Amino acid sequence: MARKRLTQMFPFLLPLRIWQRNLFYRIGMRFDGNKYAKTFGEKLDYEVCSTKTLMINENSGHDIIFQRNKVDNLKIASQTMNHILIYPGETFSFYYLSKNSKKYGEYKDGLILVDGKIVAKKGGGLCHLSNLLHYIFLMSPLTVTERHGHKIKSFPNPDKSSLEGIDATISGGWLDLRAKNETNDIYQIDISFDDEYMYGRILSNKKPTVDYKIINEDLHYVEENDKIFECVSVVRVQTDKQDKSISNHKKLYDEKVFIEYELPEDVVIKKILKKK
What we know:
The chain is of the alpha+beta class. It is built from five helices and 16 strands.
């Protein structure tokens, strides 16, 4: 049996622990050698990439109010980073920007994964925004320097056409999403909403010469020790904008996540025998 953390045995200590972690994290960022993006500006002229994501997941298995609260939370968090400029040598940090959210409103209770369980917490659902940002970072010349995938997938994607393995979980004081501009150009995040979708774009001051497309390869499911895991490779294909030729096909990383929900009957699951 896993040993319980002090905050699990004494929950009243959790706010103090969170305050401590945030303090230490901010101090660390002052001395880690990164120059964090903090300048906002008018929209840049050229679109590098774009995507959209359905915000309400009807298949979460929880009260729909938490999905609606999540939408409100996403709109608050997006205001802390919308139209941020990422100059050459600068690093985008989700944590660095979103810590200023209180000036835009109060977060509501949304769903979040805590100790392997889905619970409702204030500010829950912000991973929906970090997921979108991570995806457009991968489709741009920006270099992702920190990203953490979810270890558990509790319900299927609301959009069946969406890719697997591109999520990015965040947790204030513990986990961040960061992307560094190692080019000579300026990049900018643009986020917008309609009634159903959240939209994300990367803009630039220079007209892009290549397109980046993210695809899944070798998507499969395995059963290990009576648990089902989804395994997938995340691949980036680089195409020349002028002649449409493929100039680079690169596997970025492999992803493996525990599936907590029931898969469709037609999904093939490979059983891996336990080692004696």
